[in-house]
Amino acid sequence: MVTTKEPVLGFTEALVRLAHLVQQVFEDVAKEHDLTPQQAQLLCLLIDGPVGMTELTRALRLEKSSLTGLVDRAEKRGLVARTRDSHDRRACRIALTPDGERLGALAHDGMADRLETLAAGLPREQRDLLGSAIAGILAEHTATTGHPRPPADR
Amino acid sequence: MVTTKEPVLGFTEALVRLAHLVQQVFEDVAKEHDLTPQQAQLLCLLIDGPVGMTELTRALRLEKSSLTGLVDRAEKRGLVARTRDSHDRRACRIALTPDGERLGALAHDGMADRLETLAAGLPREQRDLLGSAIAGILAEHTATTGHPRPPADR
DNA sequence: TATTGTTATACTCTATAACTATA
DNA sequence: TATAGTTATAGAGTATAACAATA
């Protein structure tokens, strides 16, 4: 008998392991494109258009000084550029450079590919159920904290 | 009408957001006990008993030198202790101190509490389905990579 | 005064390369 | 020779506190 003897993961343990797995995949994908996970996350966050520093600190849950450093390094690598805000001379908006746009798209798509592969073994039905269960958890969290868009990746 | 108009998350996006949420919760719980996430993870990994450095590098996916530093700092804080391996004089085993055991348990339980709360809104049935869907994904990953126990948290 | 962002400083975390000691 | 672990070094990521400029 070589049956897989599932140890029947506890629910929370299953969640934690899944999160670590996704995190690993994210790190691997970032590394493939010579990005740190934080840089990859920043790029993914900027795909839809320039974002201000303050909004980024909320999305990334970083102190503003930490974000300054992250943006500094990304800018030095030519991935993003600071553009002045036309309505508030104190503020600036962070935009992707063509290079950053390219890498951001690669990272995002690479992530999607990997996760699709990982979930490929799941029957369609179970997959949908997983999707809606997750949506339920995210909704619960949103309701509790009031953050309409937690970190998210785009 | 204030209906929640779910944007119908894509499957992979749902996974990524869930992972970030769990990661945030983990960071918050660690911080509550004045631990870095890495220290908390280390403590959780040692709850079942002492573990050797080499095994820890695999569990945490770190280079050995990175682990040396992590253990150094945890040891300096009195959370863990290096004990000599009785069968191999090159090797050592990392064990929790009473303080580390206490904090590890608090972090682990705090994590479980938070995630339970988060999933409290899910109907029993959906929760079970989520658990088994995750088990399926983890099994797929295990089958692909051959790692019997990815990172995991205990 | 409050907000936006940067600078200065100090840690933690991580990796690569070279090293020591034991197997 | 190979393995277990440490040391040296460098860079990324993060936070706190103090600051400058604008609102």
Automatic annotation (TrEMBL), chains A, B:
Pfam families per UniProt: MarR_2
InterPro entries: HTH_MarR-typ, MarR/SlyA-like, WH-like_DNA-bd_sf, WH_DNA-bd_sf
A GO term, aspect molecular function: DNA binding
UniProt keywords, alphabetically: DNA-binding
Superkingdom of origin organism: Bacteria
Gene3D superfamilies: Winged helix-like DNA-binding domain superfamily/Winged helix DNA-binding domain
Domain HTH marR-type: 8-139
GO biological process, one term: response to stress
Protein name: DNA-binding MarR family transcriptional regulator
Organism this protein belongs to: Nonomuraea polychroma
